[in-house]
């Protein structure tokens, strides 16, 4: 297990989001990305909660933002170096953003995410 302080981890998440292709960033809508410093639910490195863009209809509105949560302690627990933490943060952010775009876990695994 690698220990990364909260501020440094949050910077990694920001960097991962900033590393997304600009055209994807422009399409993201009504979603908040947060870091949970606790371990999170068993076995999860990240979690998407909300209504994917592909399921939103014309009646979508007046709802709280979707939420992507990245679990710091869980990612640190599966990493053996700072470099692995950075890579796992990036993979987890991309995976959860994929859910925001309506991509299933099975398809994300096929794509290597």
From TrEMBL:
Extract the Gene3D superfamilies matched here.
Answer: 3.30.2010.20
Q: Which SUPFAM superfamilies match?
A: Metalloproteases ('zincins'), catalytic domain
Cross-referenced InterPro entries: Zincin_1, Zincin_1_sf
Q: Which Pfam families match?
A: Zincin_1
Q: What is the designated name of this protein?
A: Metallopeptidase family protein
Report the source organism: Nocardioides guangzhouensis
């Amino acid at each position: 297990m690698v220990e990364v302080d909260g501020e440094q981890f949050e910077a990694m998440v920001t960097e991962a989001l900033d590393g997304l292709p600009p055209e994807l960033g422009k399409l993201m809508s009504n979603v908040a990305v947060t870091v949970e410093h606790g371990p999170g639910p068993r076995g999860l490195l990240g979690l998407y909660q909300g209504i994917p863009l592909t399921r939103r209809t014309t009646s979508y509105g007046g709802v709280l933002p979707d939420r992507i949560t990245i679990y710091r302690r869980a990612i640190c627990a599966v990493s053996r170096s700072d470099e692995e933490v950075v890579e796992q943060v990036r993979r987890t952010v991309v995976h959860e953003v994929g859910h925001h775009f309506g991509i299933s876990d099975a398809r994300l695994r096929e794509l290597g995410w």
